[in-house]
Specification:
Layout: E1 4-8, H1 12-24, E2 28-32, H2 35-40, E3 49-52, H3 61-70, E4 79-83, H4 88-97, E5 101-104, H5 109-119
Parallel strand pairs: 1-2, 1-3, 3-4, 4-5
Length: 122
């Protein structure tokens, strides 16, 4: 059975690029257009990993990760932040919220897929 990955980004084209890479590697993909929208999709189904942007309207990525980690079903779900942010302070904030990896845009699909393969829940 395919593993499910939640992709959260306010850019439709970026969700599409990430989605194509993940689907090509055999994953199922759920999309959220921002943190608030993504939370509405977290209804208890198994999500094996989240790929999340930092800067988004309505609810940014760091806030989303904090809220997502409060949900009992997803407390241990790994999160990869995929963002243009590369400052150490933002990375620390992401890590404190519960993010396991930080991939800076523009990214190479194989780098993202490598991180996904390492972190995805069994």
């Amino acid at each position: 059975m395919a593993k499910t990955i939640l992709v959260v980004d306010d850019s439709a084209s970026l969700r599409q690029v990430v989605g194509i890479a993940l689907k090509g590697a055999g994953y199922d993909v759920i999309e959220g257009r921002d943190g608030a929208d993504a939370l509405t999709k977290c209804t208890g189904q198994k999500i094996h990993l989240v790929v999340c942007d930092v800067n988004m309207p309505n609810m940014d990525g760091i806030t989303f990760v904090k809220e997502f980690k409060k949900l009992a079903s997803y407390r241990f779900t790994p999160v990869i932040m995929l963002t243009t942010e590369s400052q150490e302070s933002k990375k620390e904030e992401g890590k404190a919220a519960g993010a396991k990896a930080w991939v800076v845009k523009p990214f190479k699909p194989e780098v993202l897929l490598g991180a996904v393969a390492k972190l995805v829940l069994p």
